[in-house]
Amino acid sequence: MSSIKKKPNKKVFFINQKVNSRLKSYIVSDYFWAWAKILVGKLSPKAYLQFLDLFAGAGRYEDENASTPLLILEHVINDVDLRAKVKLVFNEADYVIYNKLKAEIEGFPGVSTLTYAPQILNESVGGGKIEELLLSSTLMPTLLFADPWGYRGLTMDLFSHILKKWGCEIIFFFNYSRINAAINNKKVTAHINSLFGQNRADRLRRDFVRTNQEEKGDIWFERITPEEREQIVVVNIDAAFREALSPRNVFTQKFRFTNGRGNRTSHYLIFATKEPFALRVMKDIMAKQSTSNEQGVASFESSPLHKQLSLGLTTEISPLEKLIELLRRDFVARTLTVTELWNEHHIRTFNASTHRFTLPNYKQALLLMEERSIVKILPHRDKRPSPLGKPTLADDCSIIFG
Ligand SMILES: C[S@@+](CC[C@H](N)C(=O)[O-])C[C@H]1O[C@@H](n2cnc3c(N)ncnc32)[C@H](O)[C@@H]1O
Description:
single chain, alpha/beta, Rossmann fold, Arc Repressor Mutant, subunit A, 2 domains, 15 helices, 15 strands, 41% helix, binds S-adenosylmethionine
């Protein structure tokens, strides 16, 4: 039976920044920048964008490395549009850590140039005040970042309320190792129910029971592997996010972090959005931060071993060949543009077999298919630009499948 894992030690967490923390901060701050730059031009005169970090931490590690709040603050200060139109809200429950964060932010060079002074809150998520702020009907377009040490206080109802609003997206650092250990623990049933939503949590437990044991005569044998268990958890949290609105209206993308030895999953960074374009932007950012890739197909992982141990990553055939196989199967006798193909295949039927492929990967696969005469592409390759001696593939090119 699983036991509750110990919480991380506050005293040591903010001493030296680990590789995973650095990568997580880069992904979040790079995405914040892209999100803010896209939306800032679409705001009405009185509106503003909000970055809301629910579990902000100290802002800087004792080794002097800046963490997510300071990277985001720097982006805003350095951009004239964002300075005028972004409100940063950082929350941290621990009073000592909150004071460190406050000092870092208030002393940050250029902070006084912001139209909206950063708001630094010392509230406990789950205590009511933060929930009140998030449930307000006047919530501005908000990028919500939730990076807790565990799972307490986070509810799918809250996530779903936020996702419904225009311009609102969520980045959740899902603590797989702690949540996995808590799923069957009766003492925290209510927390797990709130996080996954009651129906999903019940289903998750049922899936565990169904797959966990096998009857042979009078004896029940464990037959679920840790990888299978992980797959069940991941599929269910993914589905919970997609069902927050309706599966066709929410897109998710995840990035896996292993522990320091690289042999187990520690966290997933989960991104949820209603916007297909936002998914494309986040995929490109996560692909860039992956610590390994094969034929240009990123692992969407950070592992010190650069091993592809995770779910669905150990393919017998190379990933691009796998994508070619899927495209051949799914588009027989069809003609469509690259954008239409991407939208149909990736965005609408987005699933475990396609989640690692970025738009550039689809283009790589289509160009290989053209070379092998599996598809025809219009305009013809001689008529398309070939800056590096190889024809390019624009989003509006037509792909003709045989
Ligand atoms: C993983 S750390 C955050 C790291 C931070 N996101 C970063 O990138 O540097 C989690 C933080 O949440 C704080 N915390 C724990 N429980 C909390 C709660 N209920 N509400 C708000 N903050 C909480 C902890 O004190 C800790 O500083």
